[in-house]
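User: Let's play a game. I give you a shape written as tokens, and you guess the letters that built it. Ready? Here's round one.
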């Protein structure tokens, strides 16, 4: 069986992207967006950060939120939801296997906590829009169905659905 030059090139690019550069296959809104941003400014206009403020990195609610996102990783990737735990001291922060996530430096976590006025002893989950503004705040883990429903009503989400090549 002979492949056309076009088909051979497509297979070569796929092989290169999936085997040699697997990080390319992670969800990101645009090529200019960082896969694992280091601060909120790098997330703006690229991701919908799900800030999970937790009193500790071993809090059961933090782990529950991470597991819910991982169970629906495809939905989270399609909607550019970025799991971003905010803990006082990051030693063993749970990170999803499949859902997009980032782990900020401790000074960045502190800055986020101060920006949104969340005390260290409070558990809070906050979804930010791509514009960086809070869209949903809860004091318990948020089900992915609720996240999906809210995000799907956002005007930018409508554009993303048209721009299918983004993810």
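Assistant: Ready! My guess for every position:
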């Amino acid at each position: 069986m002979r492949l056309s030059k076009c088909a051979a090139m497509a297979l070569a690019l796929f092989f290169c992207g999936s085997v040699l550069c697997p990080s390319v296959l992670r969800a990101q809104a645009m090529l200019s967006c960082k896969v694992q941003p280091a601060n909120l400014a790098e997330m703006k206009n690229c991701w919908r950060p799900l800030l999970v403020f937790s009193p500790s990195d071993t809090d059961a609610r933090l782990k529950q939120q991470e597991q819910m996102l991982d169970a629906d990783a495809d939905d989270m990737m399609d909607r550019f939801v970025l799991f971003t735990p905010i803990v006082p001291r990051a030693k063993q922060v749970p990170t999803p296997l499949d859902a997009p996530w980032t782990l900020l430096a401790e000074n960045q976590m502190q800055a986020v906590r101060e920006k949104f006025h969340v005390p260290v002893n409070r558990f809070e989950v906050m979804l930010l829009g791509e514009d960086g503004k809070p869209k949903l705040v809860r004091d318990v883990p948020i089900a992915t169905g609720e996240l999906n429903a809210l995000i799907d009503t956002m005007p930018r989400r409508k554009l993303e659905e048209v721009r299918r090549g983004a993810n």
